[in-house]
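Chapter summary example.
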Amino acid sequence: MGGPLHGIKVLDLTQALFGPYCTMLLKDLGAEVIKVERPPGGDMARGNGPFVRGMSTYFLSLNRGKKSLTLNMESQAGKELLLSLIRKVDILVENFKPGTMEKLGLSYAVLKQHNPRIIYVAGSGFGQYGPYAPKPAFDIIVQAMGGILSYTGEGPGRPPVRPGASYGDIAAAVFLCIGTLAALHERDVSGEGQFIDVSMLDSQVTVQENAFVRYLNTGTIPQPLGTRHPVVSPFAAFPTRDGYVALAPRGGANDQWPLFCSAINRLELIDDPRFQNGWLRTQHWDVLEPVINEALKTRTTAEWIKDFEGLRIPCGPVNRVDQVVDDPQIKAREMIVDLEHPKYGKFKVVNTPFKFSKTPTKAAGFAPELGEHTAEVLRDLLGLSADEVEAMKKKGTI
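The structure predicted for these 398 residues follows.
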């Protein structure tokens, strides 16, 4: 049995990161994803390094298991071919600048005439309407405009710091996938597809719900805090003798503050009126942080982890990527897997996080060569002969 989306067909017109990450998730869930690329270059991500044995590992990480079909949608024959494919699929995903598909004569209004069940998923930097809709956007642009860069950093007065991952792209891609799955469910009820509009900027605001709700209701503008939490303390990464340890002792009715103070041998802090709950500890962090830092620097990360885990205080080491790969939990969950390419050999990739009991999923299949599956898709979906496909190649349609 395939994944939970087995039998669902997706036309993937996306490129770079935002859109391809969404369609990769759909592929992981079992959908057949047909990546439509413009000849002769294809997805711009094919040119992104680093390259290993001639393969772009960036492109591999986002497009494994997809099929690649080349198509010139600017030609009349290409448009007609796309419309023929629309009749055979369930979902179309694109992340063009708003208005691009309309200029090509391939808007949702046109596509649904050819397939009323089509789910048209449009991802963009700023959405399909509003004053910024025509603007191009990349990850750092929406992180900056969405506010998160303003309070990601070491502290007040220090320059903004971009998170190590492309947070603006990935968060929006997950919302794009969620919207697609919801529309599939609704189609089972109504029998008709619909148009989905997801903005990277909207998504940035959504994932910062705590920062925005605090400002909207208290007037306090979030400021850079390093690794610590804005309302609960201690909740941060602290230096140890040989690295860093992340700590988040529980507060509230089951406050672990006395346990924590005992563990770091600072019993005098337990009854200090400035530190009686998480909020008070946050208000007096400038006093408290140096004391905790001094205590934790006396031992190694592993030693502290052993003690804190014995007390059931939530904790963890600040791992480098190589340490994550070798972590026993990551290995037990099979989060790193091998993919074998007949031309380029074996590559390691991150597995899908989805774990289903009845319809298992996994990272499977390699990133396709440009146009590798063009003839196969046109034959299987549209019944075109080899001669017809060859004629389209000569004409420049595919």
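To summarize the output: The chain has two domains: 9-207+331-395, 236-318.
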